[in-house]
Please model this.
Amino acid sequence: MTADVIDGKAFSESLKQDVAKQVAILKEKYNLIPGLAVVLVGENPASQIYVRNKNKSTLAAGMKSFEHRLTPDVSEAELVGLVHKLNDDPAVHGILVQLPLPKHINEAAVIDAISPAKDVDGFHVINSGLLATGGKGMVPCTPLGCIMMLKNRLGNMSGLDAVVVGRSNIVGKPMAQLLLNENCTVTIAHSRTRNLSGVVKRADIVIAAVGVPELVKGDWIKDGAIVIDVGINRIEEEDGKTKLVGDVEYAAAARHAAAITPVPGGVGPMTIALLLKNTVTAACRQTNVAEPEI
Ligand code: NAD
Model:
């Protein structure tokens, strides 16, 4: 068996086009231009690339982009002050503080300061609570992208066995919640899980969100399973060059799975598309406008 490749790049491009159409309608009908503010603290090279890409994609979708770059020695109070200003700015509908933050800043306190209505990352405790209780909050972009890919492939997921490897607040836990909302039977595995291979082997859906290169072995994958690899790991090859790999042993897993996401080109591109989509949703909710259906 050779798995179908789930093309996250193509999927995200079509989502971005839909978002651009929604933005055009909002502009024309309501003179509403969704705005996304991104705050970057310090000079982490990976974060700088993410922020640049977010800015480019926001503008390409016809939205407003507000970029705030702060020096690494900025105090927590100053950062929270900026977040409060953005909360009060009616041109800003979405606020994203790029993580990680420098050690002297309490990330939870900063996320807490973001208005839940503008929390397009979906990390605020109000939004995680709403997700857990079936309410209408903002859903974290990466798990949202994963569930869209799964729905697109599988349609009805009711009763399927889903295993999420990883229990972080930003990927693993919201992912499990979204699968539960789709009526899957969900297992969350983590660093203390015994017999991880046995747990993964019974899954119809495997989500790997660990951050350990190729931790999930190909022969753990049940024949016909769907594999979503969230991991992004940079490894050095023998010739000294670096390459990106996921948390799943891709080639071997593809011999068992019915479909699998590649790294790069799978979950990664979906995350930015869902950030744009969340910003449109946030703008519509804040202005009491129905979100245009495309
Ligand atoms: P994290 O470090 O916060 O959490 C990792 C989780 O993996 C933990 O819950 C831990 O219990 C579990 N874990 C660690 N070692 C394990 C082991 N040996 N066996 C089983 N479980 C183990 O990471 P995160 O923020 O959830 O990110 C996970 C991965 O996803 C990273 O590679 C990250 O770069 C990637 N990521 C990608 C996107 C994207 O857009 N594609 C977005 C967010 C994160």
User: Anything to note?
Assistant: The two ends are 36 Å apart (CA to CA).
